[in-house]
Amino acid sequence: MLQKYRITGMSCSACSAAVERAASKVEGVKEAQVNLLANTMLCEYDESVTDDEAVIKAVKDAGYGASVFVFGENVPQEKEEFTPIKTRLIASAILLVLLMSVSMGHMIHLPTPDIISMHTHPLNFTLIQLVLTLPVIYLNRKFYFSGFRALFKLHPNMDTLVALGSCASLLYGIVETVIIIYATAKGNFDLAHSTAQNLYFEGAAMILTLVTVGKFLEERSKKKTGTAIAKLVDLTPKNATVIRDGEEVVIPTEQVKKDDLVVIHPGESICVDGVIVSGTSSVDEAAITGESIPVSKKVGDRVISASINQKGSFTMRAEKVGFETTLSKIIDLVESAGATKAPVSKMADKIAGIFVPVVMGIAIITAVIWLIAGYGIPFAFKCAVSVLVISCPCALGLATPVAITVAVGRCAGKGILIKSAEAIENLSHIDTVVLDKTGTITNGRPSVVSAKLFEFDGNEFKKIACAIEKNSEHPLADAVVRYCEGFDGLNASEFSSVTGKGVKAVINGENYFAGTESYINSVGISTSDEQSYINEIKADGQTLIFFADSKKLIAILGAKDEIKATSIDAIAKMKELGLKIVMLTGDNEGAAALVSKQAGIDEFVAGVLPENKFEKIDELKSRGKKVAMIGDGINDSPALVRADVGIAIGNGTDIAIDSADIVLMNSDLNSAAEAIAYSRKTMVNIKENLFWAFFYNVICIPLAAGAYYHSFGITLSPMIAAAAMSLSSLFVVSNALRLYKK
Facing residues of 496 across strands? Predict the structure, then answer.
């Protein structure tokens, strides 16, 4: 079972690693993946061994909150205990400015009242700093609660580093205060004055305030990553007009039930999925499919949630409501994709899991080395605290999920639904694209353009052909039924089909067959006398449908399926990306060759069955190719699963095609080309983020520890370290947000 949970209390990637470890240790859990950005966890477990309660208990025992994620609920916000982060930040900043003016005013010659001067009243100078520091500590106490709770649970996180650094500075200042009080009481003003020069109260307050600044800016930036989801949620109208007891009644959308008759007026957004039962209109489906041209709708046509009705009014019967609607499924897919992890992030996750304990160890070693070297407690203390504060596991944890969330959300807004982070990474490596023909390159609705009859007159044949094909779901069967429109008076019995070949039916006690030439030959009917005609029709690019009774050939129909207006341009774009294009089709050689030539395709294979498509994908992969398969997601499902990335052409009503990694809602190959190009940009962005996260910590931790002090005389104060740490996370989030502009 795959379950999604809401997780609270996380502050960095060390937290997410701790939650994953805790959940993974539960018996029966196969895999746990935490999305730090969305505060969610996907957990796959064996229902016969464990349940939700066991997983939730394990997470809570690790020091974090957990609950089963309920789709559609308002996302709970982690409440500050007393003040919102903005108010807390403003108050902390004001107190910090006052504190800094007192502690460092004498250095920049600020006018300072004599009563709190370090030179004349060192004790007052010290106490006023303590008084200004304690409110900052109180306002930002969440870092202490979260940090030390995680430490006591043996899962230290970023808050632990901040809490240790700030608390150490505070305690150091308090110890110095006690010494100053003692020295003042004994009249030793020299000791009191020299001790007052080494207070670290401003360090304790500055660390907390600067980290809060970083968190505030980071949260503001991270909120932008959910813009696409927020826009999708807003597309659902709050109210719907339904017919109850013969009258129109306005009710909340969530109360619409299956089979309700819903009235859609001009300009209204469609609230659920359904089928039109009366009226006509044109519907703007751009929000779902990305297609800007409104689609005409009439009785019997399906409409999807979040589409906008244009001019006409119509009544529809609700078929999918609540969480079953297309819009709900899109939102669920987007959120689920953000909760998954790309393979490229696995190394960062492993490092993040041990990052904080290693940093704490480095801080201790730093202090010990400088003390042994004889540099004194103040210098050793400053270096150790700087190491704690400058380290940034957040940058590692945010490097991948922020970029993935932005990419998935932006693609969803264009009608491209990506199911996982792994799909994005795999898509970026693709070098070969395999395309199905019918419905992918072509419109998928062929029409009969030629007919040669050998037995019956036109009307009689149409009755037989319609009876044979009306039970089939193949696109060519639909073409035949439309060709025979108005002649559906006969009924067939004992209908059976052979996938990719043809159908058999009994009409008035006589066996009839329809399908490919090879299928007709396989039932003992020869087509050799018509080879000249057959070759001529194939050369024109027509797909042939043969009809026969139990003794002879009775007709040959030719159908054509026009290439989509966008396919040629999309294939050209794919080739510009350096991709090799291969077309697979069950159609005949002539029709395949014509489409291939017109569309500019490198290679094609005609006359293939679904299993042959699977074999072709297998053959390409055995040659070291990275393959994306684009098809309709039904007949092509084996090939979609076998490919490195399966891309299904959707029709706007069923987006959760299990066999595909990506679904194109607008059935436009341009979206596939765009998805491939965007996946490459996303992976570049992720690698930039990971490089910065590693580079920052590799350079800055030794700098904070004083590794460059002897060579260059460079050290960092805890205040500068705190600022650098905050800016590091902000850099990663801001870099990921650049994807919105690409």
Answer: 504
Residues 6+ apart with CB under 8 A from 662: 416, 417, 418, 419, 423, 427, 645, 646, 647, 648, 675
Q: What is the DSSP string of 691-705?
A: HHHHHHHHHHHHHHH
What is the SS3 string spanning 641-671?
Answer: HHCCEEEEECCCCCCCCCCCCEEECCCCHHH
DSSP one-letter code for 28: T
Would you state the pLDDT for residue 610? Answer: 67
- Give 683's DSSP letter: H
Q: Compute the distance between CA of residue 290 and CA of residue 280 in angstroms, rounded to an integer.
A: 22
Do 469 and 481 meet the contact criterion of CB atoms below 8 Å apart? yes
Distance (Å, whole) CA 694 – CA 395: 8
* CA atoms of 729 and 735, how far apart (whole Å): 10
Stretch 662-691: mean pLDDT = 89
Extract long-range pairs of 132-135: CB within 8 Å, 24+ residues apart.
Answer: 132/95, 132/98, 132/99, 132/102, 132/201, 132/205, 133/99, 133/170, 133/173, 133/201, 133/202, 133/204, 133/205, 135/91, 135/95
Q: How far apart (Å, rounded) are the C-alpha atoms in residues 144 and 204?
A: 12
Average pLDDT for 662-679 = 88
**275 by DSSP, 3-state: which?**
strand
For the stretch 512-551, pLDDT in tens is 999 999 899 999 999 988 999 998 888 888 889 999 998 8
- H or E segment and range at residue 590: helix 589-599
Average per-residue pLDDT for the chain: 83
pLDDT for residue 76 is more than 50:
no
Length of the chain: 742
Is pLDDT at 303 greater than 70 in this prediction? yes
pLDDT of res. 504: 92
Question: How far is it, in rounded angstroms, from Cα 420 to Cα 333?
Answer: 8
Tokens matching residue 478: 């639909």
Q: Is 436 among the catalytic positions? A: yes
Check residue 290 and give its pLDDT.
55
Range with the lowest mean pLDDT among 131-135, 163-167, 278-282, 681-685? 163-167
Residue of 89, 77, 403, 391 whose CA lies nearest to 216: 89
- pLDDT tens sequence across 251-274: 988 889 999 999 999 988 898 999
CA distance 210 to 392: 13
Catalytic hit among 273, 436, 478, 632: 436
427 SS3 class: helix
Q: Which of 395, 389, 393, 394 is nearest to 720 (CA)?
A: 389
φ, ψ (nearest 5 deg) of residue 578: 85, 20
Q: Residue 245 — left, alpha, or beta (φ > 0 → left; ψ -120 to 50 → alpha)?
A: left
The percent of residues in the chain predicted with pLDDT above 90, rounded, is 27
* DSSP H helices in 62-157: 85-104, 122-139, 142-152
Nearest to residue 675, comparing CAs of 733, 628, 734?
Answer: 628
The DSSP result for 490-555, as a single string, is ---EEEEEETTTEEEEEETTEEEEEE-HHHHHHTT---GGGHHHHHHHHHTTPEEEEEEESSSEEE
